[in-house]
Design brief:
Blueprint: E1 6-11, E2 15-20, E3 25-30, E4 33-36, E5 41-44, H1 48-65, E6 72-77, E7 80-84, E8 87-88, E9 91-98, H2 102-106, E10 114-124, E11 133-134, H3 136-141, H4 147-170, E12 173-184, E13 190-193, E14 201-205, H5 215-218, H6 224-235, H7 238-243, H8 246-249
Helix pairs in contact: 1-6
Length: 250
């Protein structure tokens, strides 16, 4: 594939976003940086960015096949994704299927309680205010999105949850909870953006409940990259591993 001209637009905690010579397209580079605890815990882990790019690519393709629009266009290199440019909405949309993490710290839920129906939570994506939780009234008062847009985001999130839960369970993984981000395309449509990876999800083994996500890093344990690589092994087909040269990454 020919080289695409790019200019750094934004640097996040674990990804860089580049403008291209096409105003409708960005390039997202997945870095090896990892953070937790509101940025208080940081490290750089070799190959983490590549594995997150591969996992996000696969899960976006699964969603696209089910009619869910994402910003994903194609994987340009092992750690660079070509995407549709979006006007991002400053909301973190969290879907919880099993009670764990901050939910059991802040509320009287038993650890590992199944949540049916799942909980949809909105956080304000703003480092200055430390990403506080929002309700509909605050979202509307801040003029972040309209009520109709908020309702649509909920509906899309619940569909994503059903699709990914079924897919991942078929691969031996439980989708415990996950964070999504959305944006508006140039026509005003709500489109799924950012990433879906072990950095933004909790994934447990169906049988043992062993986790394969950033909680390993949060707890100060070893094996983060090995866990991410395990997710790649589980969800990619052999043809996809060959297509994306997964063996060369080892």
């Amino acid at each position: 594939m020919s080289q695409i001209a790019k200019e750094l637009l934004y640097t996040g905690k674990a990804k860089d976003v580049y403008k291209t010579d096409n105003d409708d397209e960005y390039i997202i580079k997945f870095r090896d940086d990892i953070t937790a605890l509101d940025g208080g815990k940081k490290d750089t882990l070799s190959k983490k960015g590549v594995y997150n790019a591969l996992i996000s690519t696969k899960l976006f393709e699964v969603l696209e096949a089910e009619g869910i629009k994402t910003q994903y266009i194609e994987l340009l290199s092992p750690d660079e994704m070509l995407t549709m440019s979006l006007d991002m909405i400053p909301l973190e949309v969290i879907c919880r299927n099993i009670a764990t993490g901050s939910l059991v710290k802040k509320y009287p839920f038993p650890e590992k309680k199944e949540l049916n129906p799942p909980i949809i939570q909105f956080d304000y994506k703003n480092d200055e205010y430390h990403d506080p939780m929002l309700n509909d009234s605050i979202i509307l008062a801040l003029d972040i999105v309209s009520q109709d847009a908020l309702d649509e985001i909920r509906q899309i999130t619940l569909k994503i949850n059903r699709v990914l839960s079924d897919f991942l369970k078929s691969k031996g993984l439980l989708l415990v909870d996950f964070k999504l981000e959305y944006g508006f395309d140039k026509d005003g449509n709500i489109i799924l953006g950012d990433e879906i990876s072990p950095d933004t999800t909790r994934l447990w083994d169906v049988d043992t409940l062993e986790n394969f996500d950033k909680d390993i890093f949060r707890k100060g344990e070893d094996g983060v990259v090995d866990a991410y690589r395990k997710v790649v092994d589980l969800i990619l087909t052999d043809d996809e591993k060959d297509k994306w040269n997964v063996k060369d990454i080892e």
